[in-house]
Amino acid sequence: MLKEKRHRVRVLPAAIPIYIAVGKVSEARRCLDEYLDIVRPQQGTAESATQLARLKALVARAEGKPYVVMDTLQPVVVTDTSRPDLWGLLAEAYSRTDQTRRAVNAMIQYLRYYPRDAEMTLQLARQYSRLGDWDKALDAAQMAESLNPTDIDRKLLRVEASLNLAVDQRGGADAAKCGQLSAELAQSRQEHPDRADIRVLQAVIAASLKQPEKAEAELKLAIDECKEPLRAEMQLANHYYRTKRIPEAIGVCQAACKRHPDIAEPWLARSDLHAANADYDSARSCLKQGVDTVTGKSEKRLISIRLALLELMYGDRAAGVALLKELAAQDKQEIYARTLLLSVGEVQQDEATAQGLIEELHEAEGASGLMWRLHQASLWLSSEDWRAKQQDITDLLQYCIDSDPEWPAPVLLMVDMYGRLEDFRRVEDICRQALARNPSATEIVDRLITLFEKQGRFSDAEQILQQRGTDARVASAWHVRMALREGDVSRALDDLRLRVSNDDRDADSRILLARLVYSQTKDVNEAFTYLKQAEAITPDSMALVAARVSILRADGQTAAAQQILDDWVTDRGDFIAYTMRAIYLTEQGQLDRAEADYRKLTTFVSESATGYILLSNFYRVCKELDKAVAALEEGLSAHANDLQIQRALMKLLFARGQGQDQRRGLDILSTL
C-alpha cells in the first residue's frame, strides 16, 4: 500500500473518479481532501489548477451539490474555454438547478468539441423545448435523431418541435404539416403501442385541427391501454379545463392521484384546478393530502412550495411564510424557497430578515451565484440610501446580465433604477440591448412601449409593436406549451402571482401575468381578470390594450379584438387609438381601413409629422415605395424643417434607387 505523499499524490487523482464510478462517494471525498492537503501548499500550474477544479466538481456532483459544481468551474472556464469535460459538468449542473438558458450555452460550448455526441445533442433539444425556442429545438432534435435514428424519444422530440411550429400563435394550424406528423405518429404507435406520449401528441394534433372529440377519445384510450398513462391523464385534464369542463378535469386528476399517489404532478394539477375555480379550501386540502401521501423528498418539496404559495396568495400569508422558512431551514441548498421568501412583501419590509436570506443564498450559490446578486440589488434599490449604492447595484445586475444575457429580471431592475434617476435615454438603451439579446422578452417590450407612450414617441412604439407581431422568436413565445413538458412556465406563473399579491399597484406584472396565463391555459376570462386589475391602475395604456387585443386575437376572437380597438377610437379618438387600430388592421390584412387610419394620423396637429412618417412606413410595409415617398414629400411640405421626416425621406430615396433618388438623397444629407 502506498503511504508516502510523493506516491499518493500521483494516484489519488485517478482514484477519485473510480470511487465515484462505483458509488463510493465518501471514499472519493476522503481522497479529494487528502489530495488537497498535499497540493495546497504547492504553487501549481494553470493546468494543475484546472485539474484540481475538475476533481472538486466531480465529487460535488456525486454529492448532489450542483451549486458547488458551478462555483468551482465557472471561474475556470472563463480563462480556459477549451475543456469540454468542464462544460459538460456545468451543463448538467445548470439543468439540475433549472437555469435553462445557461445550460444551453454550456451545451453549445461542449458540442463545439464533440458535435456528434448523441446524448448531449438530445439534452440540448430538450432545453430548447423548455424555453419554447422551437426552431432551435427542431434543429437540435433532428441532429439528435440522425445520430440515433432508432430511438423513439428523439423522434418524438422532433415531432413535438415540428408540431409547435405548425401551430401558429393564433391557434391556427398547418393542416398539411399536421397530417404528415400524424401519419408518422401512427406508424410509431404501431411500433410502440404502450407509449402514452405518442397518443398525447396525436391528441394535440387533433385539438389543433379543431377536432376536440377525437382528441378526447385518443386520450381516454391512452389512459386505458398504456402502462404509464400519467401524461395522457394530465393532458385530458388540461383538455377539459380549456373546454370549460372543470368538474371532469378535477375528476381526471382525482383518479390520477389514486393511480400515482407518490407523484406530485397530479396533486399539483388537481389543486390548480380547484384554485382556478376559486375553491381555495379544496385546493389547500388537496395539497395537504398530497404532502401526507407522497414519500419522495423532492415530491414533498414541490407540493409544500405550492401549498405555501396558495396560502400567500389566497389564504393565511403568515402560514405561507412559515412553510417556506421551514423548507429553507431543512436544506442549506434550497434556493427557490428562499427566493420566494424574498419576493414576499412582509419579508422585504424586514431588512434584517431579507439580508439574512440573501446571505444564505450567497452561501448556497457561492461567489458566482446569480440569485443572491439579484436580490441584494433589489434590497439595496428599495432602501433609503439607494443612490449611494448605485454603482454597487449596477455591478451586481451587470454580472447577472453578463452571465445570463437573455434573463429579463436584472434588466428590469436596472430599468427601475435609471427610471428613478430620470435617465430615460439609459432606460431605452438598456431595453433595446435586452431585446436584441432576447426579442421574446415581452415584459421588456411592454416597458419600452410604456416609455415611448409617455414621451409621445408613437412612431417608435409602433415599430416595437409591429416587431412583436412579426419576429419569429416573439411569435414562438405565444405557442402552446405541449403537455409533455411545461418548461419554466409554471415557476414563472408562481413568481408573477406572488408579485401581484404583494403589490396592488403593479400594473406591469398583471399585464405580463395575463399574457402568460393565457399562453399556458387558454383561459381568456382568467387572463382578463388580471388585465382589469391593471386597467384600474393604469387605464388605457398602449401595453394594456395591446395585451387585450393580442389575447383575443390568439383565441380566434378577431371580431372582439377589433371591437376593443373600434371602441377605443370612438371613446378617445386620439393619435394613440388610431395608431393601435392601424397596426391591428394591417396585421389582419384590412389594408384599405388601415390606410385610412394612418392617413387620419396626419391630421393631428401636434403629431402630424409623426403621422406622415407612420403613413410612409405603412406603404413601405405594403411594398408601395412610390406612395411611401409621396407621403414623406407631403409631410415635408407641411413640416419643412422636420428633421425626422427629412432623414426618413433620405433613407427611403436611397432604398428605392430610382432615377434621381440618390442625388436627391445626397442633397438632403448635405442639409442635415
What are its keywords?
672 residues, Serine Threonine Protein Phosphatase 5, Tetratricopeptide repeat, single chain, globular, mainly alpha
Q: Helical element count? A: 39
What's the CATH superfamily of the domain at 1-115, by name? Tetratricopeptide repeat domain
Please identify, by name, the CATH architecture of the domain at 1-115. Alpha Horseshoe
Helix content: over 70%
Radius of gyration: 28 Å
Mean pLDDT: 91
| Beginning-to-end CA distance, first to last residue | 85 Å
Report the structural category: mainly alpha
Q: Characterize the biggest β-sheet.
A: none
Name of the level-1 CATH class of the domain at 1-115: Mainly Alpha
> How many runs of DSSP E, i.e. beta strands?
0
Low-pLDDT runs = 470-487
- What global shape is seen? globular
Look up the CATH topology of the domain at 1-115.
Serine Threonine Protein Phosphatase 5, Tetratricopeptide repeat
Strand content: under 5%
